[in-house]
């Protein structure tokens, strides 16, 4: 399953290739509360059909009406991109359903050959991060590669002359081990727009494992990690409980650019794993501190589906850069729950 940005770009390109006029809309800036963050994309064709979104629906309705009333030329007053702002006044904010005090600034551009959507999509498929610079005077687009491992904030930049947006490869989840837990995690990850790869060299485990949209690999996990070279949009989670499979994959994943590396297991098994990786494979304490083990947030999970929810919640929290603000990780939650005074605080602070 494609992530939303890729789907919007691919749909817009497909409409254009069939001869339909298309407007690509980008959320450039927001002030106060806003339904969609900067960088969000939406495309509208000449028939008023849409993909993606820039608000809760009311702004979309206004944009569609503009196109229905006067065509793409009404939405983009000239060949050059158009900047629109919604929510400047309280009346307009109310009219378009924006939160109190919310303002959103949009850039509308006609999709043409100079929009360079095809090479942008190709770069994303090849897992290359790209800066797309749109000239607001001419509509010309320049695509600039972003160095591997670069840690920019990815927030669009808008000035009088250009709009710069950042598009990267689809978020990817690599799961070590084919089983019930990996199936539930895969289903959740697909719905969240992740590319999912499940790796298990054990034929008996793979025999009955199949899920549409998921790549199933029979490689040794460490060979897969070395081949894929996880980037900053990749998460790796070891689920087999077998050190022969998990440990070697974790060693390579922890030394990659992966934004999240985790492994399931009890607190005791997690401590033993950490000791093995340090003593036998010479991983530093600083490197081991980046390993999430036991993986997941503490939500009192019992079933495979609940454990999958716990782990995916932590993966998304780390991806979004809010890990420090999330509910308690599993190990700390269980430890605090064993002490009544601490346990009450954990339960009160858990929002999952």
TrEMBL record:
Source organism superkingdom: Bacteria
Xref: SUPFAM superfamilies: PreATP-grasp domain (SSF52440)
Residues annotated as domain XdhC- CoxI: 15-87
XdhC Rossmann domain location: 173-315
Name by which UniProt lists this protein: Xanthine dehydrogenase accessory factor
Gene3D superfamilies: NAD(P)-binding Rossmann-like Domain (3.40.50.720)
Annotated InterPro entries: MoCofactor_Util/Proc, PreATP-grasp_dom_sf, XdhC_CoxI, XdhC_Rossmann_dom
PANTHER family: ALDEHYDE OXIDOREDUCTASE MOLYBDENUM COFACTOR ASSEMBLY PROTEIN, MOLYBDENUM COFACTOR INSERTION CHAPERONE PAOD
């Amino acid at each position: 399953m494609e992530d939303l940005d890729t789907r919007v770009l691919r749909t817009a390109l497909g409409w254009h290739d069939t001869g339909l006029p298309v407007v690509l809309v980008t959320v450039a800036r927001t002030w106060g509360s806003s339904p969609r963050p900067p960088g969000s994309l939406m495309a509208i064709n000449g028939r008023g059909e849409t993909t993606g979104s820039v608000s809760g629906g009311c702004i979309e309705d206004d944009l569609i009406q503009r196109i229905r009333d006067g065509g793409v030329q009404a939405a983009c007053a000239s060949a050059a991109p158009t900047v629109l702002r919604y929510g400047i006044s309280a009346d307009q904010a109310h009219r378009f359903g924006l939160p109190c005090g919310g303002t959103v600034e949009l850039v509308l551009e006609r999709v043409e050959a100079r929009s360079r959507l095809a090479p942008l999509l190709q770069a994303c498929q090849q897992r290359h991060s790209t800066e797309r610079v749109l000239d607001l005077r001419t509509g010309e687009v320049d695509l600039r590669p972003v160095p591997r491992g670069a840690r920019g904030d990815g927030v669009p930049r808008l000035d009088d002359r250009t709009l710069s947006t950042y598009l990267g490869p689809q978020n990817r989840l690599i799961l070590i081990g084919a089983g019930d837990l990996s199936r539930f995690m895969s289903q959740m990850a697909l719905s969240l727009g992740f590319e999912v790869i499940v790796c298990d060299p054990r034929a008996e485990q793979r025999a009955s494992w199949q899920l549409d949209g998921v790549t199933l690999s029979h490689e040794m996990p460490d060979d897969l990690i070395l081949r894929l070279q996880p980037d900053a949009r990749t998460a790796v989670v070891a689920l087999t409980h077998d050190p022969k499979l998990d440990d070697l994959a974790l060693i390579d994943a922890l030394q990659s650019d992966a934004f999240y590396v985790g492994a399931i297991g009890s607190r005791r098994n997690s401590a033993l794993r950490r000791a093995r990786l340090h003593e036998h494979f010479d991983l530093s304490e600083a490197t081991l501190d980046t390993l999430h083990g036991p993986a997941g947030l503490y939500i009192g999970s019992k079933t495979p589906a609940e454990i999958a929810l716990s782990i995916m919640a932590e993966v998304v929290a780390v991806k979004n850069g809010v890990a420090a603000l999330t509910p308690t990780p599993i190990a700390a939650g269980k430890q605090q729950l064993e002490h009544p005074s601490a346990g009450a605080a954990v339960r009160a602070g858990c929002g999952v």
